[in-house]
User: What shape does this take?
Amino acid sequence: MSIPFIKDDPLPTGVVEDLGRPGGVRLRRLRCGNPGPFTFLGTNTYLIGEGRVAVLDPGPEDAAHRAAILTALGGETVSHILVSHTHRDHSPGAAALRAATGAPCLGFGPHMTPPGAGGEGGDHDFRPDRRLADGEAVEGEGWRLTALHTPGHCANHLCFALEGTGVLFSADHVMSWSTSVVSPPDGEMAAYMAALERLIARGDSLYLPGHGAPLAEPIRFARALLAHRGAREAALLAALRESGPATVPALVERLYSPIDPRLVAAAGRSLLAHLLKLRAEELVREAGETWAAV
Assistant: This one.
């Protein structure tokens, strides 16, 4: 099943997009000017509610983006600053926004993998004022969000369901423009796939991702993502069974070619995540840097 990626997102950096009022809740989107091979055109920040507003994912530490958020609010009060996860393109902007507004920061918790142990991409300074457990609700004027712990891309990743509307803020677990990088040890493939199945079972009607345009047919899209991961895993296992033991770089060359050179390292991390899942299932074994089918 091919994944129907959306490669076009015409929203200019710093401009506010009105996403309507599902269930009577006003939703707006801004995009930070931090494009790149893993951020697409930039990180999405969402404004939830009206009058007293929650800001979801303030993005990196970026003065221009923070100014755009405050301008978009136009005198409205920030009641909550929500963080989906602690990668550096999502959470570092929370500290300055908190200082500017006095609003508390909420998230699952600090980054869970230390630097030097696979946590180099994490925001290790983030400390939420309130930790959100799986299934915990956050409420504001006219809206209610439920935090859903969805590890895999990041161990402390949260999606947020806007109750009564079918809207899910899917952050980086499901993005409209690309698959998510799953990089061990903070990223875990088995957890990623299980959380994806959980989101599919919810049956939401609109995903608002951390990067890229809104997803109007999210369940079809998420099923395609799950099928893609399953197919990649099957191809990986077949390659080891047919051609014998191999290193991760050799497997990347075989399974991803051709590939953008900027994405080779990320592809290797995702393949490693698949290999670790298969090892836990006793389907492959590791000997140094070489992997073999059992």
